[in-house]
Amino acid sequence: MNAASSSLAAAPASGADLLLWVAFPYICLAVFGVGHVWRYRQDQFGWTSHTSQLLEHRWLRWGSPLFHLGAFMVIAGHVVGLAVPASWTEAAGISEQAYHTTAVRLGSVAGLAMVTGLGMLCARRLLTRRIRLGTDRSDKLLFPLLSATVVLGISATAAHNVFGGGYDYRETVSVWFRGIFTLQPRPEAIADAPLLFQLHALTACLLFAAWPFTRLVHVWSAPVGYLTRPYLVYRRRATTPAPVVGSTPASERSARHAA
Amino acid sequence: MPRGEATIGRVMAQVAMVMNLDKCIGCHTCSVTCKQTWTNRTGVEYAWFNNVETKPGVGYPRRYEDQEQWKGGWMLDRRGRLVLRSGGRVRRLLSLFSNPDLPAIEDYYEPVTYDYDNLVSAPAGQDIPVARPRSALTGKPTAITWGANWEDGLGGAPEHAGADPNLTGEWAQKVKFEFEQTFLFHLPRLCEHCLNPACVSACPSGALYKRVEDGIVLVDQDRCRGWRMCVTACPYKKVYVNHATGKAEKCTFCFPRVEAGQPTVCSETCVGRLRYLGLLLYDADRVGEAAATADEHDLLDAQRGVFLDPCDPEVVAAARESGIPEDWLAAARRSPVHDLVMRYKVALPLHPEYRTMPMVWYVPPLSPVLDAVSEAGGDQDDPDHVFAAVTRLRIPLEYLAELFTAGDTDVVAGVLMKLTALRSYMRQRTLGEDGDEAALKAVGLTAHEAEDLHRLLAVAKYADRYVVPAAHKEDAAALTATENRCPVESAGETSGRRVMLGLPTLRRSSPEGRS
After folding, report:
1. Structural domain count of chain B
2. Which of A39, B58, B424, B471 can bridge B383 by disulfide, Cβ–Cβ 3.0-4.6 Å?
3. Chain A residues closer than 8 Å to B471 by CB
4. Closest residue of chain B to A48, computed from CA coordinates
5. What are the residues whose beta carbons fall under 8 Å from the beta carbon of B277, sequence distance 6 or more?
6. Which residues of chain A are within 8 Å of residue B99 when distances are taken between CB atoms?
7. Residue A108 located in a structural domain
8. B484 pLDDT exceeds 60?
9. Is B138 in a helix, a strand, or coil?
10. Which portions of the sequence form the region Disordered (chain B) (predicted)?
């Protein structure tokens, strides 16, 4: 442990901190995990990107690539910023100043692309009646939640690191984030972070909890296998017997009795 | 048919279709019954697994045959390799976020319903209440400005038909300005269940597949992730996005019926009796090579070269080795599709130049030529006049060639000559004359073959038109499953779940308790 985090560790965590920065993230992660298993097993039919390009393509033409490519960069930035300790990058010869400048520049570009894209996607969803009517409950949860997370995130960066004096989240938020996954929770690390960062972290937790129940599941179906599979797909007619509706097979019934 | 020296690879069977276009009156019964069976659901209001187009015409979706625009099907790259026109694998993955070549709903049409309720709930008044159209997508009142068969019977041809991608130059002008003197025929279209399906090859999730047993191309609804690449890749635009479920849907060739040995709904209900269903055996290992044939004009022969003669003992042996059951081999020998495609060679594929090796073939219509004969002051019933027209009248022939032979007019002319000779010979026979066999001989038919072909094309008994062997009982368990549950329902669930297909969950009770 380095000096910065041990000084933070001196302050005891309050009950509210424990609830917000330990219990809540773990609950969200649990919902994320269990939710995915449940959805994958129960709802393959609903597992889709739910394209609406057929109904509206002019806004989507720009909005969707901007959002997705922006999101990829933003996610990559978060992985580096949250998962890699500052001591590692310094060991690699990247000074804190250099890291900070690069992160803010690249992050701003990525963040702006993502916000613009998401804005366009939200706009078409709200303004195009065809799409608004096709918006289901999960979308009504996902779009505001995702927007809130993204807007809070880019506001935090803008307020503190672009226009503000600079805030080193790698010594606080990142420490808390890594603590969750190393099973050594450090609620005190984030407890004193600026409000925007805290809110961003909380909405992100909520987003992870909502993830398995929304169209975000299509992320896990990114079709990379397509690059290597043969073009033509042949399949035999279903060979595994599906359950017969209305009449439970005798063997299954007895098995259930046995259990 | 002797198959030459090449060895036979994996033999597969396909339930294929042939349509005799001269008999199509454009009644749309096939489309309507298909729609009632498969696409009367939210999300696919605009989709017609089967539709009937008037030709010349722009088609449905508009100008779908213009592959420069829509990028459907395959093409050969500079090195002569077969590639999807919409681009390679990486390019496809890069366009996942926004597919630049996807038709919009406007290219199909905005589906409508009518506020029927107004007919009974309108307050008493001077005027008779009417049911006004409302968009099925927005619920708002809308004007109907396009449809799946908007140009029915050349309606609107002066405005639109000139935009038919198969028309070029002077003929486009003629259709535009003298459409009442042009020809017209109807073209029923459904999924081609291709041997080299571009939709299957373009599906990033591997959800689309071709069935080994009967060649039917299906979308696995559980594996489709809504990447919508299949829609672009299909040059016939016969894969649709269900905008309610976010998944692709397409013609299923009525597989539950075909598995039970019954014809598809469109075939069963065709009032013109113009559809034929039967097996074609093919060599699956030679499909890729045939599809990559360099000259577009050779594609027809290349595809015929992939089909196998079910009477050839070598083929039979290879088919047995590939696991094709005996009754299927017997059905393949009786297949009307094999007769029309391979034996008499009167059926042609739709747009072979797309290189997908389509499996719904067409007997080209004589009517455009007969129309031209009449227009030129000739006698439709005199074979010499028709022969002369076939050889001299460039325009209808070129149009048919654009559709069925990648522009090779000789092949279309050959088929039309054959039909003319058959028509005049059987006409003489029916009138009690002997019949002139010279004309038959010229087109390569014997009197016996002419009788047989006439029986198949003109008499067209139900049992002759549809030779569909039932799926095999070894797979009884799987079959029971498809009979007893909704195809899109997840295992074991019956109640309280929204069923996305317009099919009852339970189709019949099973008191015997199959297991």
Report:
1. 1
2. B424
3. 237
4. B225
5. B15, B16, B17, B258, B263, B264, B267, B336, B337, B465, B466, B467, B468
6. 53
7. yes
8. no
9. coil
10. 488-515
